[in-house]
Amino acid sequence: MEKKDAKPRLIRWVLLLQEFDLEIRDKKGCENVVADHLSRIMLEEEDVSPDINDQFPDEYLMSVSVDPWYANFANYLAAGTLPEDWSRKRKQQFYSQVKHYFWDEPNLFKIG
């Protein structure tokens, strides 16, 4: 806080670090030999291009692992298809429920 020509960014860091017991010493760029040396190191350029990661985390963000409850209603009303593994009793239950719905593309509505 004693530095007279401190910039707002430096002041914010000082205020943040005040709660710790430490001593901060600031050196001008020409006096700071370590920083000056590090900034002058030449990096060897390599022709190796980085591997491209083809997997994106957002690809699976909207994926559905279980069909929604209305999938069979929408499939039946739009295309007239039912799952083949259903028993006769399950189909009868479905037919009694599906008569309360109608499909107005792209929406599924319930009557009543």
From TrEMBL:
UniProt xrefs under PANTHER family: ENZYMATIC POLYPROTEIN-RELATED, RNA-DIRECTED DNA POLYMERASE
Protein known as: Reverse transcriptase RNase H-like domain-containing protein
